[in-house]
Amino acid sequence: MNYHKKIQIKFLALTLVLTLFLCLSQQLTACSFVTKPFQLPASAKQEPWPIQTGLRAAIVRSKIPTVNRVVLVPDEATFLAAIKKWNLKGNWPILIEDDKYAPLFLQRFQAEEIVRLPSIKEQLPKGKQLQELMLNAAATAWNATDTQTLKAKWTQLGWEPPGVVITSENDPARSAAVALAAAHGQPLVFLEGNFGKPNQTLNNTRWKNLQRAITKAVESTGFFYSQLADQIDTITIVRELAVKYQSPQKKDEQLAVTDGLGRHFNGERWAAVGWIFGSEARSIYQAMCAIFLDSQTALLYDSYPKEGNWAKYEMEEAATELKTIGLDVDVVQQPESSLGKWRSLASKPWTFDLILMNSKGYPKSFQVGNGDASVEDIPKLQFPAAIHMIHSWSASAPDDRNTVSGRWLANGAYAYVGSVHEPFLSAFIPPKLMVDRLKRGSPFLIAARQLESPPWKVATIGDPLMSLTKPRQRIPPTQQPL
Q1: Where are the alpha helices (DSSP H) in 309-430?
Q2: E strands, 322-412, where?
């Protein structure tokens, strides 16, 4: 080897050593070849925690393209196989094909390509093997293979999960949990046990057992969670669960499980909670709507008089604000709002992405102006909808389609905010304030909640990271072939 060649090799070796030294000394943050594309900007950390949470979810939406495709599968095993095709270059909706929820999504999403996959004709394993299958399926969306490599990938990308997804390996909604963990970059945790049916009320003992179990599940991820604006600020429960628990102070009152969870035992909040339950097809549909659909249309229905405390919940200002972000908004208010007007509107399927409504009533009826509408007057939906309903009792039995919330969910609502008991008007956020929060980036279920009050009666059903977003650019299927 000649002299000049030796000098060149020594120079390259020295350069490499110096580069590695500089990288280590600056903790890999100042090197030009190290990037943290999913890191929340330092300026965003000055925002209130709900806005930070929304911004973190928005980072993922902006960095991982939506492919203009919908994949339809015949069963859960094929769904889990299909979701392994997601990666950092692109995701796309995957639904179990049925006669009800998949058509609603297809009409709204308007995909360039629809792919129907045949069944892989495999039976899913049980126990730990099934858990590993689900965990690994969620990890592939981040170009990882399992939980360990997933955490390493998140560290490399500068990603801090905004929440935790909790499911049961024995629950029909479990695959929706995989989708939400994969799409939002969240750890997936399993919680087994009987915590009631959706329409039931937990007694004090069972309620405390659930609180402890949820907190322990979040702790198991190893991420900071105990304060707002740390890493974990949302909990998505994707499994069967009671909607209510007995108030420790008043035996004749029931409180919302989704408002009581995510708190320390002194009542101080450390996370906001969303909840998805039900069949494989419906729960996956709700997850896909939350992940992939954008908001373009809204109906604001105001049945309240413009006087006293009712006037604080007027809809005109909220409608004006929604229009400034590009939504096509219909407003119905006094004196136009009436039973006749409602039934006229409900005579054909609705095409509203967002529905905000003021009402009074009971589990099976709701006032629409000058009279009461029944569950049978709830319209069919042509498009999936996110619904905020200021109304007493509407969510007291969300798994009963003969109640207000139960019928909206059965008809295709994928997010729903409503009360499990008589909450009083002040339990709800006035529409203008809620829209202000949505405009700033707060997720829908968080924007709808009184965040600093003690546990109360408003239930939040759906993905707590779902936000009101403008239509996103989609990449053509040819860029991410199956």
Answers
A1: 316-324, 339-345, 404-411
A2: 328-332, 354-358, 361-362, 365-367, 372-374, 385-390
**What is the residue type of 151?**
K
Q: What whole-number distance in Å separates Cα of residue 390 and Cα of residue 392?
A: 7
Q: CATH fold of 293-457, please?
A: Rossmann fold (3.40.50)
Is-cis flag, bond preceding 162, omega within 30?
no
How far is CA 432 from each of CA 41, 111, 263, 429, 459, rounded to the nearest angstrom? 28, 33, 27, 8, 20
Domain extent listing, the chain: 63-288, 293-457
List, for residues 80-111, the tens digit of each pLDDT value: 999 999 999 999 999 999 999 999 999 999 99
CB 187 within 8 A of CB 218: no
Q: What is the pLDDT of residues 415-453, one digit of tens each?
A: 999 999 999 999 999 999 999 999 999 999 999 999 999
Please choose, from the candidates 167, 177, 282, 186, the residue with its C-alpha nearest in 3D space to the C-alpha of residue 234.
Answer: 186
Name the amino acid, one letter, at 231.
Q
Strands 372-374 and 365-367: antiparallel
Specify burial of residue 185 (Cβ count, 10 A radius: 0-12, 13-18, 19+): buried
**What CA–CA distance (Å, rounded) separates 352 from 203?**
38
Query: Helix 49-63 vs helix 174-184: angle between axes, to the nearest 10 degrees?
Result: 90
| pLDDT higher than 70, residue 359 | yes
Entry pTM: 0.92
pLDDT tens digits for range 257-277: 999 999 999 999 999 999 999
Question: CB of 277 within 8 A of CB of 198?
Answer: yes
Query: How far, CA to CA in Å, does 337 sit from each of 282, 302, 303, 340?
Result: 32, 7, 6, 8
Report the candidate in 269, 298, 315 with the shortest Cα–Cα distance to residue 433. 315
CB atoms within 10 A of CB 387: 26
Q: Which residue has the tokens 């965990």?
A: 135
Contact criterion met (CB below 8 Å) for 414 and 445? no
27 Cβ contact list (under 8 Å, min separation 6): none
Please, are residues 159 and 39 in contact by the beta-carbon 8 Å criterion?
Answer: yes
Tell me how crowded residue 458 is: count the other CB atoms within 10 A of its CB: 25
Structure tokens at 228: 């707002």
Burial class (CB in 10 A: 0-12, 13-18, 19+), 156: middle
